[in-house]
Design brief:
The structure is a single chain. By secondary structure, the protein is of the alpha+beta class. The chain is built from ten helices and 13 strands.
């Protein structure tokens, strides 16, 4: 009976140590962990953050300072949680872009100029960029403030991450907003920082070719309310999470062209959208077209030649993601779960077999070692064994 006693004691000891060292995972946790590594962050609109409730729940800090451009704040800061209260004429645009709230204040004092300052917060940088390009006029001068800036005498417009800052001369004053560079810069730097995916701007505008680009005409839209490109809005298919970047180009021949970059969730949807554009009866709307994965490029312009249009499209550099299809075809979630559970069972059985092997080796190894030393099989009669004689 001695060997079996050693075997059972060793096996029990090994199993206890293994159970304490091995982390337990439920199937649901394992599925979640496996699934979390399947997708890498992308910058298309399909991954755009649209949950503005999280932004509303964030810690609210005063966004506007007590004084601006040497003028004290008149009254308190007005907070508008509804887009209709901020700009009734463009409430649909703000809502489409994920509007969260707006803080507005008037700065007036003994000076000759008074300023109306407004900070609009959006759910993410994608919506903020769409709103910025919508309110920016092509005649505005570029301003090196924040992530995007533009200014004229009547408006200083800045996008910084997921916020848009608007500074205007107050009604009845004759101030020039272009003179506010240091004050607007200080205001933008004092705004609360936004981190994570919400602060990442979309990559689509960066795919526009640089040669001949009139940068102030770039317009980015994620919905029909803010879209103002040359192609019909019905052809854009915004209902499928499309995002569109349009811009004007001055070609070497002197002709003016409009380039529309249109990104859709999948190459199949993009192919259908391209066929819709090619079916438009006005040929000047599609002088040349090109599809690269989920991206569609369309050149429009009555005076643009097909060769110039093709050369403009050649400047688009987009590397599409390569997806390797499963050779066994579609795998259902039930099959994936069953395969996972079967793998866990196999691993558990392998672990038990390894524990049993170790226990047998330790049990019989100790037995043979005692016999080689001339000792009895059991250690119960050893003098070094401590007994509680109760």
């Amino acid at each position: 009976m001695g060997p079996f006693r050693y075997l059972s004691r060793s096996l029990l000891h090994v199993l206890c140590v293994a159970s304490l060292a091995w982390p337990l995972h439920t199937p649901a946790q394992t599925l979640q962990q496996k699934g979390s590594g399947l997708r890498a962050p992308v910058t298309s609109s399909s991954t755009r953050t649209s949950d503005t409730s999280a932004a509303k729940a964030a810690i609210k800090l005063p966004l506007l300072p007590p004084d601006f451009a040497g003028e004290p704040r008149e009254g308190s800061i007005s907070i508008h949680p509804a887009a209709n209260d901020v700009d009734a004429a463009h409430a649909a645009v703000l809502t489409e872009d994920g509007f969260v709230e707006a803080d507005t204040a008037l700065y007036a004092g003994a000076g000759t100029a008074s300023w109306s300052v407004q900070v609009l917060r959006f759910g993410d940088a994608t919506g903020a960029l769409s709103a910025f390009t919508f309110f920016r006029d092509p005649s505005m001068q570029a301003a090196a403030v924040g992530d995007n800036g533009a200014a004229n005498a009547g408006l200083y417009l800045v996008r910084t991450r997921a916020s848009v800052v608007m500074v205007r001369p107050a009604a009845g004053t004759s101030g020039d907003a272009r003179s506010l560079v240091p004050f607007v810069t200080s205001l933008v730097q004092s705004l609360p920082a936004v981190h994570g995916p919400e602060a990442v701007a979309p990559a689509l505008p960066g795919l526009l070719p640089v040669a001949g680009l009139q940068s102030q005409t770039m317009h980015y839209a994620i919905g029909p309310a803010s879209y103002n490109g040359p192609l019909p809005v019905g052809a854009m298919d915004f209902g499928r999470d499309a995002e569109v970047a349009t811009a004007r180009y001055h070609l070497p021949s002197g002709a003016d062209a409009a380039l529309t970059l249109w990104m859709l969730p999948t190459p199949q949807i993009a192919g259908a959208g391209l066929r819709t554009v090619l079916a438009l009866p006005d040929a000047s709307l599609h002088r040349a077209t090109r599809r690269i994965g989920p991206l569609v490029g369309v050149v429009s312009g009555a005076s643009v030649t097909p060769a110039e249009a093709e050369q403009l499209l050649a400047g688009i550099h987009y590397v599409s993601d390569i997806t390797i299809n499963q050779p066994q075809g579609y795998i259902s979630e039930v099959a994936k779960t069953a395969k996972l559970l079967l793998g866990i069972a196999y691993f558990t059985a392998l672990l038990g077999l390894a524990a049993l092997t170790i226990a047998v080796f330790l049990g019989f190894g100790r037995l043979f070692y005692r016999r080689l030393r001339g000792k009895p099989d059991s250690s119960l009669n050893d003098d070094t064994f401590i007994r509680l004689k109760i």
